[in-house]
Write a structure and sequence with these properties.
The protein has 326 residues and is an alpha/beta fold. It folds into 2 domains: 4-120 and 270-296, 3-Layer(aba) Sandwich (Rossmann fold), CATH 3.40.50.720; 123-268 and 307-321, Dihydrodipicolinate Reductase, domain 2. The chain is built from 9 helices and 14 strands. The strands form 2 sheets. An 8-stranded mixed β-sheet has the order 8-9-10-7-11-12-13-14. The radius of gyration is 20 Å and the shape is globular. The termini are far apart. The relative contact order is 0.16.
C-alpha cells in the first residue's frame, strides 16, 4: 500500500487533532500544516515535528491529500481551489454552507478523479458498528445532541458559530439517520431559536421518510450538559446508544417479557478511524488508479446539508413571522 503524503489546512482545535492522528496512521506521512495564523501554524508544526507552510498552494504542491478544518464559511473556497489542483480532500462537516456549493464540489471532485470525503465522525463511532449490525427496518429514531456554548476567543467568533446549531451540531445526526434509514425524505418540520448568537442555538426537527420511518432530532449549543445519544425503535426491539460514553443497551422481546442487555463495544478513536478510511481511499487510488468512495462521500455530505439547510430555512422563516407579528 502506497504511503500517502498528507497536509492539514486550519490547525485550530480540530485541525490540531487531524495533524496529531495523521502521525499515528501507518500509511500516512504528514508533510506539513497551514493556518492563517503563522503563530498557531508554527506551534502545531513544532508540536508534531512537521513543517509550517505560509502558503496553501505551496503545501498542496507537496502532498497527495489534505484535511481542511477551516471555519465552515471558508470550506467552499479552499476545497474548490485544492480540487482544481487534483488533490484528494477530507473536509470537516458541514461540507459547505449552501447546497449549490456542495454540489459543485462533488461534481468537481468527480471531474478531476479526486476523493472527496466529509468529516461526519459519528459514522466511525464504535457504537455505529453495533447499531448497523442490529438494524432491522427502523420505524422511529430519536437523537439528542447537547453542548455548552463555545467559549469566547479574542478577536474571533466562538468556534462553530459562523453557522447555526443545525449546521454546527445537528448535521451529525442528520447524516447518521439518512444512512441508517436509507429512504427518501418525504417531509421536514422544524423549529429553533437564537439565544446567544444571530443564528439558532437550539433546534428541533421532525423528518418523515417515504418508507414510513420518522426521526425526531434535537440539537442545542446552550446546554449546561453534554449529551450525544440516539434511540432506535424497530420491530420487537429498542436500541439506546450513547456516542459520548460509547455504551448502550438493547431491549428486545423474549417470550412474554422484555430482555435487556448491554451493548458490546469495541472501543476505538473515531477520528483516527475516519482518517484511516480517507488515507486508505487515497492509497487505493494511487496504487490502482481506481477511485472508490470513502465511507462518508461528498454526496453523503451534500445530502445531509440539503436537509440541514431546509431546517435552517424553516427556522429563519418562523423567526421572521414572529418579528413581523409583534
Amino acid at each position: 500500500m502506497a504511503k500517502v503524503k498528507v497536509g492539514v489546512i486550519g490547525v485550530g482545535v480540530l485541525g490540531r487533532h487531524h495533524a496529531r492522528l495523521y502521525k499515528e496512521c501507518e500509511n500516512a506521512q504528514l508533510i506539513g500544516v497551514y493556518d492563517v495564523s503563522s503563530e498557531q501554524g508554527n506551534k502545531i508544526a513544532e508540536e508534531f515535528s512537521t513543517k509550517y507552510f505560509a502558503d496553501i498552494n505551496e503545501l498542496a504542491d507537496q502532498v497527495d491529500a489534505l484535511s481542511v478544518a477551516t471555519p465552515t464559511d471558508l470550506h467552499f473556497e479552499v476545497v474548490k481551489g485544492l480540487l482544481e489542483k487534483k488533490k484528494h480532500i477530507l473536509v470537516e462537516k458541514p461540507i459547505t454552507t449552501t447546497v449549490e456549493e456542495a454540489n459543485e464540489l462533488v461534481a468537481l471532485a468527480k471531474a478531476n478523479s479526486c476523493a472527496l470525503m466529509v468529516g461526519h465522525v459519528e459514522r466511525f463511532n464504535p457504537v455505529m458498528d453495533y447499531l448497523e449490525g442490529k438494524l432491522d427496518d427502523p420505524m422511529f429514531i430519536e437523537a439528542h445532541r447537547l453542548a455548552p456554548y463555545p467559549p469566547l476567543r479574542p478577536g474571533l467568533r466562538p468556534r462553530g458559530t459562523e453557522v447555526g446549531v443545525t449546521l454546527d451540531l445537528m448535521i451529525h445526526d442528520i447524516d447518521v439517520i439518512l444512512h441508517l434509514v436509507n429512504s427518501e425524505v418525504e417531509s421536514v418540520d422544524a423549529v429553533g431559536i437564537p439565544i446567544l448568537s444571530p443564528t439558532e442555538d437550539i433546534a428541533n426537527a421532525r423528518i418523515k421518510f417515504k418508507n414510513g420511518c420518522v426521526a425526531n432530532i434535537t440539537a442545542s449549543r446552550v446546554s449546561p450538559e453534554v449529551m450525544r445519544k440516539v434511540r432506535v425503535f424497530q420491530n420487537n426491539a429498542y436500541l439506546s446508544l450513547d456516542y459520548q460514553e460509547k455504551k448502550g443497551e438493547v431491549y428486545s422481546l423474549e417470550g412474554m417479557g422484555i430482555n435487556r442487555e448491554n451493548v458490546p463495544i469495541d472501543d476505538h478513536n473515531a477520528l483516527l478511524k475516519e482518517l484511516e478510511d480517507f488515507v486508505s481511499t487515497v492509497s487505493h487510488f494511487i496504487d490502482t488508479d481506481e477511485l472508490r468512495a470513502p465511507r462518508v462521500s461528498g454526496e453523503c455530505g451534500a445530502k445531509a446539508l440539503e436537509i440541514a439547510v431546509e431546517i435552517t430555512r424553516q427556522i429563519v422563516e418562523l423567526q421572521a413571522k414572529k418579528k413581523a407579528g409583534k
